[in-house]
Design brief:
Blueprint: H1 2-14, H2 18-30, H3 32-37, H4 40-43, H5 46-50, E1 55-64, E2 70-81, E3 87-93, H6 99-115, E4 122-127, H7 136-150, E5 159-162, H8 169-183, H9 203-221, E6 230-233, H10 238-249, E7 253-254, E8 256-259, E9 262-265, H11 272-281, H12 286-292, E10 297-300, E11 318-320, H13 330-338, E12 343-345, H14 354-362, E13 367-369, H15 371-374, H16 377-390, H17 397-421, H18 428-447
Parallel strand pairs: 3-4, 3-5, 6-7, 6-11, 11-12, 12-13
Antiparallel strand pairs: 1-2, 2-4, 8-9, 9-10
The structure holds glutamic acid (GLU).
Length: about 450
């Protein structure tokens, strides 16, 4: 079976897409037990088909900046798999966006979306546009120009984009406004919408809340709990903010936040109201938090030990990487472990490198909640938004939150039991990848060669 997996990975290597290769390597190696047990997947070339997106669209975006000058960016939509439903996945606006990054994110999304148990395929899109430092008008004009092309390939039953890094409620609003004008439709084609025009309550909170629900379930299984735990959180966006909020509700304390300029350590616990004011209202940086909060310390990136992420040097019981991919490497996890950290729950997509994942899985006293299981709450709630839109309804916060909580519990138990079934007890990487893969692969078999 190793030979089959290596052959598929060899083909990916030819494309020189290292981030996608990293994601595919993690998934393909971890599903080896099911490929060995069920030969139909190899017989019907499931892996060869699964690693190739069904459709990739790349387009030019031209928008006018505040000086009246035309600016050009690249836009993409990777429609990876529609085996389980309409393509579903966020849009990322960040200078690092390219096809490699979007293929990694789209590929992860297939399995994550499958794990939610809901009817959604996998996709991802975005642009290399950098929202940092742009005026309100520039953001609006960019979103409108982006939608000019994207609107041609999306639809409530075809492909339903949402937010990701650099795309929040404001950007979804501008894109929805443009979509409506271009298509003459008011439907559930985008999720993460505003509450007055089709958005779902609890969608904003869902990824962070879901990640904490998952961690709670994982610790409960180990006869432990979040109560009294000191936690390190990276990032300071939507995922980090609502992870911190839910951690507090479970009696845990988050002591760090970070962004691309550095991290903040607040040993008293991050003041959520202040953080929300700085990030959601003023759109500021984490250094502004340290300036406003007595006792909080800001450490800039140039002070980090070479090859490490400073935020992981803080002593904690558990870590919630909630910023971006490859932000927690082998040196970081060794430091965390040495300092007493005994669990990691991934709020971001693929924040841990392959080496750091292998290190975590090798420790008998460590619990690792992989991204595609732990952060699936965001996209799951997006699907709840699609359900509400299809029925022209709006559910209460409590109703959505309860559904989210149940979905996260189900994802944990499904991943845990699947790992056990394939003789990898406790290994949630194997469990979640196999559980996610099995459903997609079975649908592909039933659909015939397409
Ligand atoms: N960008 C989020 C993710 O990585 C959410 C996607 C969605 O809601 O469609 O899962």
């Amino acid at each position: 079976m190793g030979a089959y997996i290596n052959k598929v990975l060899e083909n990916i290597k030819k494309a020189s897409q290292p981030t996608f290769l990293q994601a595919a390597t993690e998934v393909l190696h971890s599903i080896e037990p099911i490929l060995r047990a069920d030969k139909r997947y190899e017989q019907h070339s499931i892996l060869e088909r699964l690693v190739v997106p069904e459709k990739v669209t790349q387009f030019r975006i031209v928008w006018i900046d505040d000086k009246g000058k035309a600016q050009t960016n690249l836009g993409y939509r990777v429609q990876f798999s529609s085996a389980l439903g309409p393509y579903k996945g966020g849009l990322r606006f960040h200078p690092s966006v390219n096809l490699d990054v979007l293929k990694f994110l789209g590929f992860e999304q297939i399995f994550k979306n499958s794990l939610t148990g809901l009817m959604i395929g996998g996709g991802k899109g975005g642009s290399d546009f950098d929202p940092k430092g742009k005026s309100e008008g520039e953001i609006m004009r960019f979103c409108q120009a982006f939608m000019l092309e994207l609107s041609k390939i999306i639809g409530a039953n075809t492909d339903v984009p949402a937010g990701d890094i650099g795309v929040g409620g404001r950007e979804i609003g501008y894109m929805f406004g443009a979509y409506k004008k271009l298509t003459n439709l008011f439907d559930g084609t985008l999720t993460g919408k505003g509450l007055k025009w089709g958005g779902s309550l609890a969608r904003t909170e869902a990824t962070g809340y879901g990640c904490v629900y998952f961690a709670d379930e994982m610790l409960k299984k180990a006869k432990d709990s979040l109560e009294g735990k000191v936690c390190s959180v990276s990032g300071s966006g939507n995922v980090a903010i609502y992870t911190i909020e839910k951690l507090a509700a479970f009696g845990a304390k988050a002591v760090t936040i970070s962004d691309s300029s550095g991290f903040v350590y607040d040993k008293e616990g991050i003041d959520l109201e202040l953080l929300k004011e700085i990030k959601e209202v003023k759109r500021g940086r984490v250094s502004d938090y340290a300036k406003a909060k007595k006792g909080a310390e800001f450490v800039s990136v140039d002070k980090y030990k070479k090859g490490t992420n400073g935020v992981w040097s803080v002593k904690c019981d558990g870590a919630f990487p909630s910023a971006t991919e490859n932000e927690l490497n082998l040196a970081d996890i060794k430091t965390l472990y040495k300092n007493g950290c005994r669990f990691v729950a991934e709020g971001a997509n693929m924040p841990s490198s392959l080496e750091s994942i292998n290190f975590m899985l090798a420790q008998k006293d460590f619990h690792f909640a992989p991204a595609k299981a732990a952060n699936a709450g965001g996209v799951a709630t997006s699907q709840l938004e699609m359900q509400q839109n299809a029925g022209m309804a709006q559910w209460s916060f409590e109703e959505v939150d309860k559904k989210l909580h149940n979905i996260m519990k189900d994802i944990f138990h499904n991943s845990y039991e699947t790992a056990k079934e394939f003789k990898h007890s406790g290994n949630l990487v194997v469990g979640s990848n196999i559980a996610g893969f099995r459903k997609v692969a079975e649908a592909m078999l039933e659909h015939g060669y397409c």
